[in-house]
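Problem: given the chain below (243 residues), write out its structure.
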Amino acid sequence: MPYTMPAQRMAFFFSPKAGGTSLRAFLFHAENGFAFRDYSVQGTRIDANMLAANYRFNRIDHGELVEFRRFALVRDPVRRFLSGYSNRVLHYRELSIEAAGRDLLREGLPPDPDIETFIENYVGYLRCSKPLARHFLKQQKFIGNDPSYFERIFRLERVGELVDFVNAECGTNAVMPRLQTGGPKLDFGMLNEDLQIEILKICRHDIAFRLVPDYWAPYAHLLDSGEEFHAKPDGGALQRTGS
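Solution.
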């Protein structure tokens, strides 16, 4: 399920590497009146990711959410891709010998790949690690394909709008922390053009490009998508129109 707030009848959908860990902690703060921090129960460590299981959209019982106001959080797909590589491959080393050695051997791939090697063998590396592959699924796998399902869709890059909205709705003053920041910050502009194009080919069908045209604008000169993307012209939070 998404993170639900039954008292407020609100439900928030999000994707891996699109602010989900921080969002969980923020909504916990808004719901409970105090900031979340990791804690232990009988020796089991509980972190923010355990506050709400982030299931794929088609595995959620949407009947339970009929009376809920529904919201989503999306991220620039290219930045999300680079964050996924930095955090899951470089920081958590999910493609190390220790974590995926047998599968790497089966695929004939080197461990701990640099970004060029990772992109060149993208599909093979995803086969080596289910947790890693999950973080690289397109955002529609977690928020669906129909923006009309949501009352409003927020952008991670303008997450202050979500914070202000939730605090106003809940009468709270909760703060959005920055979590899951491990790994170096990779600059798309510093990559060579061939790598940039390959990343765009991987990310081009992410629904966020259709929801927020501003996401595609910086990359349009590199790859002719052959598609038109439609969303609010200001690139801000999307709102459902009509009944």
